[in-house]
Amino acid sequence: KAGVTQTPRYLIKTRGQQVTLSCSPISGHRSVSWYQQTPGQGLQFLFEYFSETQRNKGNFPGRFSGRQFSNSRSEMNVSTLELGDSALYLCASNLHDRNTEAFFGQGTRLTVV
Amino acid sequence: AQRVTQPEKLLSVFKGAPVELKCNYSYSGSPELFWYVQYSRQRLQLLLRHISRESIKGFTADLNKGETSFHLKKPFAQEEDSAMYYCALGGSNYKLTFGKGTLLTVNP
């Protein structure tokens, strides 16, 4: 069974640009969550989707957005990139509609220069 | 509000010694507590969760609602236990709140 797949693994962008990250959950998993991981703040919740509906959003500016498709794949978008957006972005998928065991991808390392 | 505190950023023990990684939480509802582990160059993975009350790789954790704690314990640490450990709290709002993590180093 394939794990959670995130693409791309690494990205370098310039301030002001926008970026789209992709996440393919484990087959059959309908819940997808996104987290930002930085050395200073640790793991912070961005948003969660279930059956194409965003059910919760973390305390991030509106520049951070996401969506989920009918096949449960998810994308997150960050517009007008800032240096502080440099982080590891992790996607997690969950079989159930509650936070039971979340399976994480390897992450996308975003560097903003 | 959900909050998870892991007071130790770093913990170093010798092989064969007992290890305890501390976790305290704050949550007004009925919490679901987890320990996640990240070995070097590997993805974050679930180690154990309080609801299953199982022991994984010799680790156990007991939820103490009175002290709002969920400490992770192992009686005899092994070198392969060296990793980053995160305590996480799941509520009814479909998100996990993580502590800042504890880097465990087991010395030979």
Search tags:
heterodimer, A: 113 residues, mainly beta, 7-stranded mixed β-sheet, 4-stranded antiparallel β-sheet, 11 strands, 0% helix, globular, B: 108 residues, 6-stranded mixed β-sheet, 3-stranded antiparallel β-sheet
Number of strands of chain B: 11
Oligomer: heterodimer
Instruction: Give a short account of the largest sheet of chain B.
Output: 6 strands, mixed
Q: Could you give the distance between the termini of chain B?
A: 41 Å
Structural class by helix and strand composition of chain A: mainly beta
Could you estimate the helical fraction of the residues of chain B in percent? under 10%
Order of helices and strands of chain B: EEEEEEEEEEE
Q: What best-fitting shape of chain A do the alpha-carbon axes yield?
A: globular
How helical, in percent, are the residues of chain A?
under 10%
What would you call the structural class of chain B? mainly beta
Unreliable stretches of chain B (pLDDT < 50, length at least 5) are none
**Largest interface, chains and sizes:** A-B, 27 and 21 residues
Radius of gyration of chain B: 13 Å
Continuous helix count of chain B:
0
Tell me the number of helical segments of chain A per DSSP (H or I, 4 or more residues long): 0
Task: Estimate the global geometry of chain B from the Cα principal axes.
Answer: globular
Estimated radius of gyration of chain A? 13 Å
Explain what the structure shows.
The complex is a heterodimer of chains A (113) and B (108). Chain A is mainly β and 113 residues long. Chain A is built from no helices and eleven strands. In chain A, strands 2, 4, 5, 6, 9, 10 and 11 form a seven-stranded mixed sheet that branches. Chain A has a four-stranded antiparallel sheet with strand order 1-3-8-7, with no helix packed on it. The model of chain A has no long low-confidence stretch (mean pLDDT 94). With 108 residues, chain B is an all-beta fold. Helices cover 0% and strands 44% of the residues of chain B. Chain B is built from no helices and eleven strands. The chains are: A mainly beta (113), B mainly beta (108).
